[in-house]
Amino acid sequence: MRGAVKLKKYLLGRVVVALVTVFIVITLTFVLMHLIPGTPFNTGNTNMDPDALAQLEANYGLDKPIFEQYLIYLNNLLHGNFGTSITYTNRSVTEIILRSFPVSLDLGLRAMIFGIIAGLLLGIEAALHHNKFIDRFSTVVAIVGISVPSFVLGTLLQLVLGLWFSGWVKTVFHTDFQLFPIARWESFRYTILPSFVLSLGSIASITRMMRSSMLDVMSQDYVKTARSKGISERAVTWRHEIRNALLPVVTIIGRMVGNLCTGSFVVENLFAIPGLGKYYVNSVTARDYTLTMGLTIFYAIFIVTSTLLVDIAYGFIDPRISLAGRKR
Amino acid sequence: MSIFSQKTVPVATKTEEKDFVKDFTPVPKDLEASGRIHRRSLTYWQGALLTLRRNHSAMIGLAFIIIVILIGIIGPILYPDYMKTNMLATLQAPSEKHWFGTDLLGRDTFTRLLWGTRTSLMIGFVAETINLVIGILYGGISGFVGGKTDVIMMRIIDVFVSIPQMIILILLQTVMSNGVPTLIFSLCVTGWTGLARMVRGQVMALRENEYVSASLVLGAGRWEILKRHLLPNAVGPILVNYTMSIPGAIGAEAFLSYIGLGIPVPAASWGNMLQEGANQFPGSLWLFFSPAILFGLFMLAFNLFGDGLRDALDPKMRR
Question: What pTM, to 2 d.p., does this model score?
Fold first, then answer.
């Protein structure tokens, strides 16, 4: 019973922190964006007709006092209205999100699934063959994946697989077929390189975590007990070692969502994929403040929600959560 | 030692046994010698240093880090002209005159790389050193004061941690003027929480440890406990945390400059050199790969050294 109460308290605490976080991000974004001197249309050096300017600002509600603007903005957000883009005329931020977020989600899920599978396999194999070749290999993958950022690796792969390899294919087989196209997002082969590049960070962190977690579990007494009871090696590995070692790895999956979003900013630009990350980066460089603001808030809500869901799932999976709390 | 020698003594057959016993003369007991300690006793730091020195990849990493730091300090002094453009020699391939070629405006990539190294390293070290101070102070206060203050301070950290770091970085870069100070400031806003939590954890653990209670009972003052117990226990993890966070800060700079925020162009940093190189891709590959290789190797070296340091400073990991 006490466990159930503590679990409930833990979940409640997480939800409250998530809500407060989202609220703070919204307020912070709003305040910071309005600290920029002038309005998006009037940066102080335009030669616009004052009347037209006033009309434009009134259209976007920029003539009202700032607190009223804040309340209006909050109200709009509650109704799913993230504002109107400035550079893409007549396109609402919500429309942009609806159109391009599925692409990002597709890319992110591919990278996530591949990253989890590859990371778990590498980590498990490395621990089962401790100090053998596969272990060394996984260590190298982990450290390279953490050290080398995606834009360096992505450019390298574009060069080697995208250009040199397809150039070689062209001279040998006289065909324009590209196995690894380096831009756009159309059929499956277009998704291979971007998904792989995006997943590398996840592969590295999951491999690392799974390996050390497996090694830790493998030296536990209950594993020795299971083995000495005569349970088959396979059953010990699956039922005792891998199952228990998976627990701490679940926690990084929550953090992975944020990292994948960050990664998608780069990968989508690198491979010219029309996802949300590309719009976000473009909005920042084009100084499209309403778009930046809307997308920042959207990303914050998305990341905080997914982290929260993973935490809740973790609360149900791990029987010890009620005692240990969540650390690391 | 005794088990070992028993194993190597040849097993005597029954006929040989007598001769064997006859030949056997016990060595006189030397009490003084057996009391002597042969292995030099090592303090915590000596042991850590020894382990670290035996870790080849960490030492290679350290050597590389030192070389790059020296490049960042000395290089710009020897080659000051990183902004000098030459429209007659744009996008030149590497040659004797321009070791790593020239960029779109005819600036020498080698010189810019030296300056970029200085900028990137400075951002990483300065930002993380500030974070170190903030983290120790915040965590220390939270842990020492305890009670309600601690709860409130930790809730603040909870909220800080759950805001995605990249979003704060991008937002601050958008709002404030781009440049080194803004970058350092925004890295500090987001970077101190991990260390603060860890320091608080150390302080809290210290309050509950028996040996601390014991020394309190024996009459040790607050300062004595701080000096004898807290510092030696906390310095290791803090050092590891500091080392591991520097590549993170440098990577964040590269990421921001790469997507067009961060350090604006006449200045040089690894990130904006990578961006310039990527803009020319797939032509003029030297523009991308000269900073990319240095940057990648540096990150690798830092991570290898950090891993080695962590293993060396953790007594449980020591072999």
Answer: 0.81
